[in-house]
Structures are given as structure tokens and as C-alpha cells.
Amino acid sequence: MLQLLLLLLPLLWEGSLSQILELQPSVTVQAGMCAHVLCTFHRSGGLFSYHYGVHGYWFREGTHVLYGRPVATNDPSREVEDEAEGRFHLLGDPRMNNCSLSITDARFSDTGKYFFRFHSGYDKYSYLKNLLYVNVTDLIQKPDISIPEMVESGHPVTLNCTFLWTCGENRPFKFSWRGTALSSKTQSSWASHSSEVSFIPGHQHHGTNLTCQVTLPGGRLSTERTVQLNVSYAVQNVAITTAQDSRTTEIQLSWTLAKCGIENSCQPCGEEGELWIAADQDWAWGRRQAPWPAAFSAQENSSWPLMLTLLRGALMGAGFLLTYGLTWLYYTRNPLGREQPPAPEAAQCSMLLLLLLLLPLLWEGSLSQTLQGQLSVTLQEEMCAHVLCTFNDNARLRDDRNSVYGYWFRKGIPPTHDKIVATNDPDERVKGQDKGRFHLLGDPKMNNCSLSITEAQSSDTGKYFFSLHNGYYKYMKKLLYVNVTDLIQKPDISIPEIVESGHPVTLNCTFLWTCGENRPFKFSWRGTALFSKTQSSWASHSSEVSFIPGHQHHGTNLTCQVTLPGGRLSTERTVQLNVSYAVQNMTITTAQDSRTTVFISGNSSDLVVQEGQSLRLLCAANSNPPATLSWLLGDQTLASSQPSQNGVLHLDLPHLGPADGGNYICLAQHPLGSKQASLNVSVQYRPTPSHVFQNGVILGALCGAITASLLALCLLLLFTLLYFS
């Protein structure tokens, strides 16, 4: 009964020993996009069995591990969920304790919790306490449209539309262009990541929309970006209308360069000079002509942004002059004796005109300002993250010849302590430990505010917001929360399937670096199998080590440590070497009654036992993988083992008889070489009690006869001596 309980203990202990799984608790991915989840696990049993495959499974929470379907596995005999097939992949090698998961073409139905399970022979465990939460959000990533700085009427122009695809697969996208400036209203093409469109814009296309739509592989989802064309063209016509009370009067404007008028044809009178604007209007109380100087350099082709600036300046100048004129007219009587408007009415007119002139300034930044981007990002220390971000800024007209600056701030307490961490403004310097680690990836001209964080530090945890330079509009309602966690990512060590004793072997250590920069890492190897206990080198992403293992190195540890750039943090992975070697030594152990005797192969071994006794023979062979053992007597096979029985085979010989004697051979068969050991067993005859009695009688009779003969001989000699004396 005690032996049975001891045999059942390994089964009762399943999963009760130390089982550790390391992975991020959650991952957020946009619909149609991809995500990679780093995952490692540790089991209490150490090295996996050489003879059993190691299978890993990712299941949805609540799925039966035996009868349900996983979403990802490396087990060819298990079917995966129909909806997850081809989209969920077990990237890691479970033999290397790697359970990393990849999700492509994410769908809303993928939202939920998942757990990992491994299975190797009788060794299996489900990590139900370490769940991964997958959150699939709306697709907010948009393509980027690059526009030349100068788009002139009548000149060909080419626009490029690019979609950032994080999955790494070279799959075609459907790009569709539409807009009034195109020869056909819609143009479609299939391309990889980018598409171009060419057309000749006219002045009528200024301010019109041009849209690039990207349909993701599979055709389920699409995303688009729309830009307004900013076409430079010559002056067509100019008119300004003013409103006072219920009267609407057109003001005639004339442009004067020195003493030469500029017509609508835009033919310049000279290269440079003093530009004057005169506003003529017949009012009830007089005719006003207000000159307004402005510096101006004449160009052959005027652009619309320049004209807009001039008109805005002219309107403001004329407005202030008119306001001043109304005030002057109020305080000075009309020489003709005409009745002036009441003071309140004049003041109201002046105030109304002033407000109308100030509206363009007041509107700046007050129109629709929206920002779209993920609300939070989680990354490990010293790792990197890319935050996709777009914004709509309808408050200002884009001028491609002017720079557009964006700023990412870390929110401070109090708000006066807000700190710039990234910008494209060359006049702003990022200071302190943020310098060189935060980057404004997106182009604010294209409404792109994407942010990159490299070499993350725990102090980076906090809230961030984006700002534009137009009045420093702050998108305070869309705060980005950055959460920096401990570094749990470990390097991967690739080991050949067969590692044989006495043969050179090369191991590769790779560290997945998501930042994309080609920066060197310090790789350090240590282990008893190496020529030197520690070997170090500087390499980019991977390192190799070569050595010749021996049978004594089987089961020993080999560690690859990676020190990240900067030298602050390091991470490592340790594997156990599984070295294949031939049979090293064999022993035969005998158990008889309470006596145990060990015989070593190579020596002449003999054993004598009494007839009727019982004997147990135990053969042990040290090899990896375990050899196949067999007990032979002559040409007869008495017992054999399977390779998974740890290289031990016993043979029970109860009630030995004369026929059981002979040369017992233990044969160890191994792919790298076979070996055998033998034991010569002799069975000694044991007499019965009746035989002992008969033998005693006979022996007693013989002894008595001999004694009587000797006594008679002695008496005869004595008589002879007495007679002759």
C-alpha cells in the first residue's frame, strides 16, 4: 500500500509545484491591425523530456482544454477555432519556455481573456491565474498624404499616400483616391503600403478636398484621410463689402505701387516699392480715402496665402482708420451743419466694426479642434513604443511655405510645470533626461502627431498632451497615459535539436528589439560547458557561442545575459543542456534476502546461490536518451525495457533451481553505441533431511568399522610384543 501511494504522489502533485508565467496583463490593438505579446513560462520539472514533443496552447477563458479548440497551438493534431485560424499564431518555441503570441487582422470578437497551457508527455499545466486580456478598439490609424510644398495652378503635381502597417507582412492594400481635382472622380489601385496620384490643379481646385482611402487586406475595414488643396494662383478679383445698420455698401479698392496702379492681371509695375491701398466710399457725411502703407516685394506670380495676408491687413487697417474717422466726426461738427448720428449709435457702429475686424483673431483656435489617438500605452523599461495620433485643426488655413510646429508636453502639477518632451520646433530645446528619447514622428502639416518613446524609464510614467503653435492650443481633453513597467522581456536561445557529446555545437542568443535602431548590446554567456566560465561580446540583436559538450554537461545550465544600451538594465535567459551521449557505465545489483551486492561491468562476476532461494537482478545504464535494456540468458530474452524507463531494468528469479543457473547478460542498446554486462549465477544443490540421515548412518558404520579394525590391530600388536618378550 505504501509503495502504491509513493507511485501516485507524482500524479497528485501535478501543477502543485512552482509554475511561473511572465507576460503583460493586457494588450490593446486596433481592429484590422496586429499585436505581438511576449510571454515566457517556467516549470518545476526543469528540462523537458527528450522523447516527448512539447506542445503549447492558447485558449479563450472558459474553454475546455481537452475537448475545446484553442486559438493557437503548435500541436498538429489539434484543430484551432475557425475564426482564429490564420490570425492567432504561437510565435514562441515551448521547448525554450517561450509562449509568445501573435494576433493579426484583429477583430472586435477577439476581445476577451486568454490563458496558456503546455503539454509534454505526462507533464502538463494550465496557467489559469495568468490571463491575457485582449482589447480590440476602433481603427483610428489613418494614412499619411505627402503634398509638395508648392502646388501651383497649371503645373503637374504628384501626391503620395502611405499607410503604416505594423504586421510586417507584404500584403497588398487597396488605395482609392477621390476629389474634384482628379481627371476621374475616383481612382483605385492595389499596392503595398503606398500609392501615388498625379494631376494638374487649377485655381478652382483651391480649398477642395482630396481623399485617400485604404482598404485593409480582407476588405472588411477601411480608413481614409482627407486634405484640402492649397493651390497657389494669380489674383482673380478682389471685393470688400461692409455692413452698417441696414445698409450694405461696396468699397472699391485700388492698389498702388509708387504711383502705378496694379490691375487684376497682376502685371507688376516694378520689382519693389511702397504698396498703398485706398478705400473709396460715398457716405452720407463725406467721402473718405484712407492710404495704408505696407512693405511688399513684387513677384511674377502672387500666391493666395500672400493675398489673404494682404487683404486681412488691409481690412484691419481700413477698419481702424474708419473707426478713428467715425470718432473724429463725432467730436468735430460737420462744417456743412449736417446732423451727426447720436453718440450711442456712432459708438455702436464703431464697436460693431471693431468686433467684426477682431473676429478672425478671436476665431483662431476656437473652431473644431479634435485629436484622435490611443488613451494609454504600456511599455517595459528600456523598450520602445509608437503612439499613433492624428488631429483635426480647422481653425487655421495651411500655408505649406510656413512651418507648422507641434509639441508634446508632460502634464505637470501645477500646470505651470508642464514640460516639453518632443517637438519639431528647432527653436525649442528638449532638456534633461527626455532629450533624444521622445520624438515627434508625425508631420503636423499632415495633421499627424504620432509620438515615439525610446529607452523608456520608470520616471516617464505619467500623463502627456499635444499642443499646436497656433495660440498654443492644448488638447487637454485627450491625455495620453504612459505606463512604464519592469523589464520582463528575455532573450531567446536557439539550440539544435540534437546536441551530442564530443561534437561541436553552436547556440544563438537573440534579443527582440522593437525600437528598430541598430544599436549594440552586450551579450554575456556563462556555463560550465564553456571553455571559459564567462564569455562577453558586443553585437546587434544576436550573439553566438560554440563549444564541445561532454556527457558531464548534460543537465547543466547555460545562461545568456543581455545588457541594454546605456548599461542600466540587463535581462537573461537560462536553459538546461540536453546532451545525448552513449552508455558510460553499467552496473548489476543483486538483492538476496537482506543482502545487496553491486557488480560493475568489465569485471568477471560470479554469484553462487542455494537451490530454492529467490534472487532479484537490477541492471542500470547511464546514457541519454536512456538506452533500451534487455536481460538475456543464452538466446532467450527474459525481460526488456522502454527507453523512457530511465535506464533501469530489474529481473526477478523466484525459487531458483538447477536449470536457472547460467550467464545472465544485460544488454544496453543506444543509437550512439551499445554495451553489455554479465553475471554468472551458480545454483548450489541443497540435500534433504532423509538424505542426511542415510549419509550419517553410512558414515557412522564406516567410522565404527574403521575404529574396530584399528582397535583389533592395536591389541594384536600388544599381544605380539608381550609374547616375544
Radius of gyration: 48 Å
Question: Total strand count, please?
Answer: 50
Could you say which overall geometry the principal axes of the C-alpha atoms support?
rod-shaped
**What's the rounded overall pLDDT mean?**
77
CATH topology title of the largest domain: Immunoglobulin-like
Low-confidence stretches: 1-17, 248-302, 334-340, 360-368
| Protein structure class | mainly beta
Family: Belongs to the immunoglobulin superfamily. SIGLEC (sialic acid binding Ig-like lectin) family.
Membrane topology: Single-pass type I membrane protein
Protein name: Sialic acid-binding Ig-like lectin 14
Domain Ig-like: 143-228, 491-576, 594-682
Provide a descriptive summary of the structure in words.
With 725 residues, the protein is mainly beta. It has 6 domains: 14-137, Sandwich (Immunoglobulin-like); 144-228, Immunoglobulin-like (Sandwich); 240-363, no CATH class; 369-485, Immunoglobulins (Immunoglobulin-like, Sandwich), CATH 2.60.40.10; 492-576, Immunoglobulin-like (Sandwich); 586-684, Immunoglobulin-like (Sandwich). Helix content is 13%, strand content 39%. Strands 2, 5, 6, 9, 10 and 11 form a 6-stranded mixed sheet that branches. Strands 19, 20, 21, 22, 23 and 24 form a 6-stranded antiparallel sheet that branches. Strands 26-34-33-29-30 form a 5-stranded mixed sheet, with no helix packed on it. Helix 2 (304-331) runs antiparallel to helix 3. The protein is rod-shaped and about 200 Å long. 25% of the residues are buried. Residues 1-17, 248-302, 334-340 and 360-368 have low confidence and may be disordered.
